[in-house]
Amino acid sequence: MILIDPPAWPAWNRVWSHLVSDESYEELHAFAKTAGIPSRGFDRDHYDVPSDRYDDLIAAGAVPVSSRELVRRITAAGLRHRKRPPTE
User: Fold this and answer.
1) How far apart are CA 34 and CA 46, in angstroms?
2) Cα separation, 14 vs 70, whole angstroms
3) Among 20, 43, 69, 83, which residue is least crowded by beta carbons within 10 Å?
């Protein structure tokens, strides 16, 4: 299933959502391609999408969930990739 959290992440004078799959990266990449999301928006385990795309992505089939639920679902699916801490 494709999931999207509410736009809540400010960066570059915009507010962003995260788009993920709780099934596979293949499902996520296929949805993103169909929705016209550029591949440069992919970051480890999600696509960053601007708030002006939120409603369109839900209309295309993404399921809105809280940020907490989104992380819970991709972690349970084994698809969560956290940033590595800096090495000294």
Assistant:
1) 16
2) 21
3) 83
Say whether pLDDT at 88 is over 70.
no
pLDDT band for position 38 (cuts 50, 70, 90): very high
- Please name the residues in contact with 35: beta carbons below 8 A apart, sequence gap of 6 or more: 53, 56, 57, 60
Q: Residue 32 is part of which domain span? A: 2-77
Mean pLDDT lowest among 55-59, 62-66, 79-83: 79-83
Q: How crowded is residue 65: how many other Cβ atoms within 10 Å of its Cβ?
A: 18
Cα 12 to Cα 34, 60, 82: the distances in Å are 25, 25, 22
Residue 88 lies in a domain: no
Total tally of structural domains belonging to the chain: 1
